Amino acid sequence: RVEHLAKILTNATAHSLVLVDEVGSGTDPAEGAALAMAFLEELTHRGCWTVVTTHQGALKAFAYQLPGAQNGSMAFDEKTLMPTYQFRLGIPGSSYAFEIAHRFGFPAELVQKARQVVGAEQSKLENLIMDLEKKLNHYRTLLQQAEIKKAELEGLIKLYRQKYEELAKEERKLKKKAMEESQAILARANAVIEEAIREIRTRQAEKDSIKQAKAKVETVRQEIEAQLQELNEKEVETDILPCKGDRARWIQMNVTGRVVSDPDSSGRVWLEAGDMRLKVPRSELRKLETSQETRETPRSMARVEVEHNISTELDLRGMTMEEAQPLLDKFLDRAYLAGLEQVRIIHGKGTGALRLKVQEYLAHYPRIARTHFAAWNEGDIGVTVVEFEKK
Question: Tens digit of pLDDT for each residue in 100-154?
Fold first, then answer.
């Protein structure tokens, strides 16, 4: 073996490909490892392409320190201790000698004694290699799962965009239809008025005929007003978070629809837009109201009602976040509309689980300027004080 290495050194150049199986074998292991290190370092300096195999732990460590060198190994199944025939660049291999011996019935006490003979450093190296392999397999699995999720997400985004285009097209079609209906209504109104004028002229403006014509025109006018109001009724976006049953717009994707569920534990709701159902964060939705609804609930009326009926505190103690969230939503919306500057949310101290969930929810709630715990004599960390943004 040593003789072969010497011949390689005599003939190797920068254009050589050197292949050596079990480099440094055929002599004392420690001395063989030292010769192999010197041999590999020299070939590296010459610029040779070199591939060697080894079971020497010292050479595995040496490859990390030698510029231009890299470890590589064939993967083993950790459970069956069988080769998977997958090459892994950058990862040193383990012989699994002790594990294989134990698997084939080698006495456990002798395996343990062998581990002690090998020495702590060698055993530590083998353990590190095996631990590295486990982590590598774990991260590879996570990467595969992430790639699958990424592909699913890209597919959903593509679908959402396609559906959004379809909804926009349908919206344009409906607007065109509404315009045509408006024009038809106006044409009908003009026809009725012209007919009434003709009747008045034909009957020479008799009182009864004029009265009947006026009544006819008034009836048609009321019908037209009702129909035009229905056609022209517009949705106005508010800064209120929607509840189940409300019309809403998803501000991230500019999609409008109806909220068909209460928020789940993560604050997400189902938004139904046409034939799509989207799971979206409630904090990214804005309630839509018709112009008529907006006129019927002026700010001053809402303010008076809330100021008389709402407390500045909400007690959530003893509840889960799923139970607390609908109450918290309603409380914050009404408090903000009432013009309150700040409110107190009592969640208690306990294990801190509800406190953390509440604070996480508040961090994504719009129109909040800041939050902080109450003073030590007013509830301390068992109470969160919410300060709203100035209107």
Answer: 788 888 888 888 887 776 665 565 666 667 777 778 778 888 888 888 888 888 8
Q: Distance between CA atoms of 1 and 26, rounded to whole angstroms? A: 6
Give the domain range for residue 325: 298-391
Question: 291, 308, 333: which is the final residue of a domain?
Answer: 291
> What are the Cα distances from residue 85, in Å, to 60, 100, 131, 139, 207?
20, 17, 19, 19, 106
> Taking each helix axis from N to C terminus, what angle separates 120-202 and 108-118, rounded to the nearest 10 degrees?
100
Task: Give the per-residue pLDDT at 54.
Answer: 85
Same domain, 345 and 257: no
CATH assignment at residue 331: 3.30.1370.110
**Rounded alpha-carbon distances, angstroms, from residue 97 to 85, 101, 195:** 18, 6, 106
Domain count, the chain: 4
Q: Among the listed ranges 90-94, 182-186, 234-238, 306-310, which one has the minimum average pLDDT value?
A: 306-310
Judge whether 263 lies within some domain.
Answer: yes
Among the listed residues 6, 16, 23, 5, the one whose alpha carbon sits nearest the alpha carbon of residue 48: 16
Nearest to 69 by CA among 46, 93, 95, 40: 40
Contacts of 129 (CB under 8 A, 6+ apart): 60, 91, 92, 93, 94
Amino acid at 327: L
Same domain membership, residue 135 and residue 54 = yes
Residue 150 covered by a domain: no
127 and 188 belong to one structural domain: no
Q: List, in sequence order, every beta strand (DSSP E) within the chain.
A: 17-20, 49-52, 72-76, 83-89, 235-237, 247-250, 255-259, 268-273, 276-281, 285-290, 313-315, 342-346, 368-373, 383-388
Model pLDDT for residues 368-389, shown as the tens digit of each residue? 888 999 888 888 899 999 998 8
Tell me which residue of 39, 31, 79, 77 sits closest to 56, measured CA to CA: 31
Q: Which two tokens stand for residue 271?
A: 């938004």
Annotate 296-341 with DSSP letters as a single string: HS-HHHHHHHHHHH--SEEE-TT--HHHHHHHHHHHHHHHHHTT-S
Find all residues with CB under 8 Å of 183, minimum gap 6, and list them. none
Q: pTM for the whole thing?
A: 0.33
Q: What is the pLDDT of residue 108?
A: 86
